[in-house]
Specification:
By secondary structure, this protein is an all-alpha fold. The chain is built from 4 helices and no strands.
């Protein structure tokens, strides 16, 4: 990960941490999701940030890196990633967030 990418990631993380700790403003950390991410979704997001930060961006390459890291797919529970699973998991997660947002609106 380049120094610039790390600074950007750290700045985003700092903003989100500040939103969570500010009284009455914790909802801003998940303002467009309708729910908080699961532990598996959070682990996937962290791994993806590291993988993308390392310069890998194609679905097959990301899937290979996720498999090598042993990241558990949030929906299927699989750890043997391929490009099709990567796409299916992201689509299912996005659909779940859309449903949660429709049900719960802003905030988690």
């Amino acid at each position: 990960m380049s120094t610039e990418q790390q600074k950007s990631r750290d700045a985003f993380t700092d903003v989100m941490a500040a939103a969570l700790s500010e009284p009455g403003r914790a909802e801003l950390a998940h303002q467009s999701t309708g729910r908080a991410p699961s532990a598996e979704e959070h682990a996937l997001a962290e791994a993806m940030m590291e993988i993308y930060g390392g310069g890998v961006s194609d679905p097959a390459g990301v899937a290979k890196a996720l498999t090598e890291r042993g990241v558990k797919a949030p929906v299927s529970g699989r750890t043997d990633w391929d490009a099709a699973l990567f796409e299916a998991e992201l689509t299912a997660i996005n659909d779940a967030y859309d449903a949660a947002y429709a049900e719960n609106g802003i905030g988690a």
